[in-house]
TrEMBL record:
<keyword id="KW-1133">Transmembrane helix</keyword>
<keyword id="KW-0812">Transmembrane</keyword>
<protein>
    <recommendedName>
        <fullName>Multidrug-efflux transporter</fullName>
    </recommendedName>
</protein>
<feature type="transmembrane region" description="Helical">
    <location>
        <begin position="269"/>
        <end position="295"/>
    </location>
</feature>
<feature type="transmembrane region" description="Helical">
    <location>
        <begin position="316"/>
        <end position="335"/>
    </location>
</feature>
<feature type="transmembrane region" description="Helical">
    <location>
        <begin position="196"/>
        <end position="215"/>
    </location>
</feature>
<keyword id="KW-1003">Cell membrane</keyword>
<keyword id="KW-0406">Ion transport</keyword>
<dbReference type="InterPro" id="IPR044644">
    <property type="entry name" value="DinF-like"/>
</dbReference>
<feature type="transmembrane region" description="Helical">
    <location>
        <begin position="132"/>
        <end position="153"/>
    </location>
</feature>
<feature type="transmembrane region" description="Helical">
    <location>
        <begin position="413"/>
        <end position="433"/>
    </location>
</feature>
<feature type="transmembrane region" description="Helical">
    <location>
        <begin position="236"/>
        <end position="257"/>
    </location>
</feature>
<feature type="transmembrane region" description="Helical">
    <location>
        <begin position="388"/>
        <end position="407"/>
    </location>
</feature>
<dbReference type="InterPro" id="IPR048279">
    <property type="entry name" value="MdtK-like"/>
</dbReference>
<dbReference type="InterPro" id="IPR050222">
    <property type="entry name" value="MATE_MdtK"/>
</dbReference>
<feature type="transmembrane region" description="Helical">
    <location>
        <begin position="355"/>
        <end position="376"/>
    </location>
</feature>
<comment type="similarity">
    <text>Belongs to the multi antimicrobial extrusion (MATE) (TC 2.A.66.1) family.</text>
</comment>
């Protein structure tokens, strides 16, 4: 069993995956844009959303790695024509993941203030962080459950239903944000920052219920864990642990960036919040082709079709770079309007405009890293992905960050360090792929 590597096949998977992927940052972007324009305490609310968003993203990305592991294993078995041999694995993996997420939720909810003090939040910003996080954190297990179900669909070469789940959640979140944050005169009192938190939580709940329903109706996969423990669960846990360590390294970068921006002052964390949300939006937009590489790459590897695997890598990179080129043009054309979407604070906007060009110019570099990152997950190369992130973080980002700090580059230094981090990630993955798979190509 193999897969035809064509424009149509790739985009049939990549376009729905892109739409599904951007739904996650849209949740944060919507909160950021609407909260940043609250008439009273808008700057402090914006800063709180940025700090809490970075911490929640860290938790979700660290524990959400089971999605990639499930997808890789299922797609490899599908390519080998042995899908029936992993029928009990998804339920065991999801049960393990949800239980772990509940344990972490209960472990953080009682030390909320200490967590955000470590991230340099203080005064009214700290107060807002606590109130916002105390509501949003309950959506954490719901998001991880939905992610795991999306991983199952991806392994089955289906990105349509994950797209529908994501569209529903993102659309509902936008509507609820306007209603709950600003209120409706005579009907709903304005809830300000807490309204944004409730909007996200309700949307995450709807996405989880929809994921459960679609899995039950559209597949034959049961979510009731059954013994004996599946032999592949050990490999899945190993892959997830490697991705877990990788995600810790990734989030050390993001959290250190937030911490250093917060230490610079309110306008700097406000500007950084806008920039990182746009960076993440572009990342998930480009990552649709990484998802196609993840899905098709695992299947081609299972079928030992190395020639088409090589073609797949070249094509998804070309398509990804094309998308990043379009995003660069949009970024420069809408340079100032994009900032105005998120804040009406003059100082925040001036600071954001001063560094936004770095975010835009780095898009092609990010594309290489994101596309090959997705492909390597499908190939099961989690150990190498772990090592690349550790190297990029501790030998790239952190030294560059503190060199920038030494030369008092401020927010410029933070974003230069992030760009160095991405260059190392992309370069290492391209090198490994060429070295491993080029010798396996067969002359036709």
């Amino acid at each position: 069993m193999t897969t035809r590597v064509s424009f149509k096949t790739i985009n049939r998977l990549a376009i729905p995956a892109t739409i599904a992927g951007i739904a996650e940052p849209i949740l944060s972007i919507t909160d950021t844009a609407i909260v940043g324009n609250i008439p009273e305490n808008g700057l402090e609310s914006l800063a709180a959303v940025g700090i809490v968003g970075a911490f929640l993203s860290m938790l979700i990305w660290i524990l959400g790695q089971t999605r990639s592991a499930i997808s890789a294993i299922i797609s490899q078995y599908l390519g080998a024509g042995k899908l029936d041999q992993v029928s009990t694995l998804p339920a065991q993996a999801i049960a393990l993941n949800v239980l772990l997420s509940i344990a972490i939720l209960l472990g953080t909810v009682f030390i909320v203030e200490e967590i955000f003090l470590l991230l340099n939040a203080k005064g009214k910003i700290l107060e807002f962080c606590i109130s916002y996080y105390s509501i949003r954190v309950w959506g954490f297990p719901l998001t991880l459950f939905a992610f795991a179900v999306m991983g199952i669909f991806r392994g089955l070469q289906n990105t349509y239903w994950p797209m529908m789940i994501a569209i529903t959640g993102a659309s509902l979140n936008i509507v609820l944000d306007f209603i709950l944050v600003y209120g409706i005169e005579g009907l709903v009192d304005p809830m300000n920052l807490e309204g944004a938190a409730w909007a996200s939580l309700i949307s995450q709940g709807v996405m989880a219920v929809m994921s459960l329903y679609l899995l039950m109706v559209k597949t034959h996969i049961s979510l009731i864990p059954r013994l004996p423990v599946h032999p592949e669960l050990g490999r899945l846990i190993g892959m997830s642990l490697n991705l877990f360590v990788r995600a810790v390294a990734l989030n050390i970068t993001l959290v250190l960036a937030v911490r250093e921006a917060t230490a610079l002052g309110d306008r700097f964390i406000g500007a950084h919040t806008i920039a990182i949300n746009l960076w993440l939006f572009a990342a998930f937009f480009i990552d649709g082709y990484g998802a196609a590489g993840n899905i098709m790459g695992g299947r081609l590897l299972g079928a030992k079709d190395y020639n088409n695997l090589w073609k797949l890598a070249k094509k998804i990179m070309l398509y990804g770079l094309s998308v990043s080129g379009v995003l660069m043009v949009i970024g420069f054309v809408l340079y100032r309007p994009l900032g105005l979407l998120f804040s009406n604070e003059g100082e925040v906007l001036r600071t954001f405009y001063s560094i936004f060009f770095i975010v835009i110019l780095a898009l092609p570099i990010n594309t290489v890293a994101f596309v090959f990152d997705g492909l390597f997950k499908g190939l099961g190369e989690m150990k190498y992905l772990r090592n690349v992130l550790l190297t990029a973080t501790f030998l790239g980002f952190i030294p560059a960050l503190y060199i920038g700090q030494y030369f008092e580059l401020g927010l410029y230094g933070i974003w230069i360090a992030i760009t160095v981090w991405m260059m190392i990630r992309g370069g290492a993955l391209v090198f490994k792929f060429r070295r491993k798979f080029r010798p396996l190509l067969q002359k036709v």
